[in-house]
Design a protein that fits this description.
about 375 residues; Rossmann fold; two-stranded antiparallel ribbon; about 20% strand
């Protein structure tokens, strides 16, 4: 079982120094106040971020392929997250269940995309061993490795929920995928999840050979809250002076604690992710509201994004997170980071997992894989 020594230079939390540089530290109130003091300077002088290239027509509703999954999801009668406890919410059906229902109804086989092999390992973390699922493509290694973080608002979902994404990326990118079961809130509030994410990246960078990987070719990826963790892990690596991943794939990432962006207002009651659910997630994730100003919660508020890994940023039309994902892509580009950003119209949050039945998901996976393959050369 692959296990390495923990990176002993990794402290438990973060704060902003008087020089405006994020360093590892104690996460003090004074540090958060320093972040707050910088916020006015972080606004885009030119207003909202420009729209990225778009795939598909700008429709007033999800297209037929996407709607079929949404209809199946509605048939599972999920309750609104704000009416549930986290424990109850974790027991509800997910869009992955709806996807499987659509596949079954259409007689699609195999329902699960095959990969070369699947293993489970435990990675040393700041509070104990972290479970990870390792997807290895067919063929002969050593393979490049992508460290992947699932979505679920830091509170719900698990490795199984995002299994379709990992299988698709494994095959499309020809990469080992290490899907990390980071600690979740409210049992483990911020900064537990980003500390686990950083520990996972560091372990893979130094121990990739133990899982058939190439430690010189390590990337990072995530969806939604996992996209947040991927972005934040790049920030932490830069701020702690450890190597960047070669590439980052951010799929509809959470990048800011702000519920009043254009897409939050336009898509306030979108399905499957709406504004009240996002507010519920943040309530359970943060220790106090002040944490929302910390760039390791809201990477869009980081004083600088210079020196980060090149990125693919994927957003979608019917998603309250669309504006902040596109704003983050624009800030990365302004900081000199190479960025491929695309908005997929006609689809909703969680579409990336649905390549078995949604054409845009196939395109998005191919786009993400192309970025990874280019970085791995």
């Amino acid at each position: 079982m692959p296990v390495s020594h923990r990176d002993n230079t990794t402290p438990p939390a973060i704060h902003l120094t008087r020089h405006g540089v994020l360093r590892a530290g104690l996460g003090t109130a004074a540090g958060l106040a320093g972040v707050n003091a910088l916020l006015p300077a972080l606004a885009h002088a030119g207003g909202p971020a420009p729209a990225p290239p778009v795939v598909g027509a700008n429709t007033g509703h999800p297209h037929a392929q996407m709607q079929a999954v949404l209809d199946q999801f509605a048939a599972l009668h999920p309750l609104p997250l704000p009416t549930l406890t986290p424990e109850q919410a974790r027991q509800q059906s997910s869009t992955t269940d709806a996807l499987q229902g659509v596949q079954a109804a259409r007689g699609l086989a195999p329902a699960v995309e095959p990969v070369g092999r699947i293993d489970h390992i435990r990675i040393p973390g700041p509070a104990g061993l972290i479970l990870a699922r390792v997807y290895t493509p067919q063929g002969t290694g050593p393979f490049p490795v992508t460290v992947y973080f699932h979505g679920g608002g830091w509170v719900i979902a698990n490795l199984d929920t995002y299994d379709p994404s990992c299988r698709a990326l494994c095959n499309a990118a020809g990469s080992i995928i290490v899907s990390v079961a980071y600690r979740q809130a409210p049992e483990h509030r911020f900064p537990a999840a980003p500390e686990d994410a950083y520990a996972a990246l560091r372990w893979v960078q130094t121990n990739a050979t133990t899982i058939g990987g190439d430690p010189r070719r390590v990337a990072i990826a995530g969806e939604s809250a996992g996209g947040n963790l991927a972005a934040v892990t790049c920030l932490i690596a830069r701020d702690r002076g450890t190597p960047q991943p070669l590439y980052q794939v951010l799929v509809y990432p959470i990048t800011n604690d702000d519920f009043n962006t254009p897409s939050y207002l336009e898509q306030a009651m979108a399905v499957p992710l709406d504004r009240p659910s996002m507010m519920w997630f943040f309530r359970y994730y943060l220790r106090t509201p002040a944490d929302g100003a910390n760039p390791y919660v809201s990477p869009l508020r980081a004083p600088s994004l210079r020196g980060l890994a090149p990125a693919t940023v994927i957003t979608d039309q019917f998603d309250p997170l669309r504006s902040e994902g596109e704003a983050y892509a624009a800030r990365l580009r302004a900081a000199g980071v190479a960025v491929q950003a695309t908005r997929y119209n006609g689809v909703t949050h969680e579409f990336f997992t649905m390549s078995a039945v949604v054409d845009e998901a196939k395109q998005a996976v191919a786009e993400a894989a192309a970025g990874l393959r280019s970085a791995f050369r």
